[in-house]
Write a structure and sequence with these properties.
By secondary structure, the protein is α/β, with parallel strands linked by helices. It has a single domain, classed as Maf protein. The protein is built from six helices and five strands; from the N terminus they run αβαβαααβββα. It has a five-stranded mixed beta sheet. Strand 4 and strand 5 form a beta hairpin. Helix 1 runs parallel beside helix 6.
């Protein structure tokens, strides 16, 4: 995964493009992985860890979208990616929401082992999405799986 992230930082730097993230279940892991790469300060604008619905909404996710589709949905991931892009004026925004093999008593709707990812490309006004099943035995391993799949998708987009 390290080489994928190094390539992402290099491409973004060469193209003078930026990225921001709004993450829930990955807890800032995508941002952390990117900022572990030398030169990331040239491309990473901002990251928000929005574990609660309250802060997703404060960052720009529509409450009605959460109420209609569940906070654990591709619809919310899309709004997260667009909201963070708008907030930071980045070229790319990554939105991640989901449950990693656990029940959330505050949000009883949505599957317990699916993570929803959206990457918004502001320049093309286009969303790229994927759903990832949390199949690993530990939370940390599931986060690594998700981050790797996001890196793979980013490489295809940028």
């Amino acid at each position: 995964m390290q080489s994928k992230l190094e390539t992402i930082v290099k491409i973004l730097t060469d193209k003078k493009k930026t990225i921001s993230t709004m993450e829930s279940c990955t807890g800032g892991g995508v941002c952390n992985a990117i900022t572990n790469i030398e030169g990331a300060s040239e491309v990473m604008k901002f990251s928000a860890v929005t574990y609660s619905n309250e802060f997703k909404i404060k960052m720009g996710v529509n409450k009605e979208t959460i109420d209609k589709y569940s906070v654990y949905s591709i619809n919310v991931a899309r709004e997260m990616s667009k909201a963070i892009t708008d907030y930071t004026n980045s070229n790319y925004g990554v939105g991640v929401t989901g449950k990693l093999n656990r029940v959330d008593k505050n949000n009883p709707f949505g599957e317990d082992n699916i993570t929803f990812v959206s990457i918004y490309d502001r320049d093309l006004d286009k969303y790229y999405t994927l759903s990832i099943e949390a199949t690993k035995s530990s939370r940390n391993m599931n986060k690594e799986l998700i981050i790797d799949k996001i890196a793979t998708l980013l490489l295809q987009i940028i």
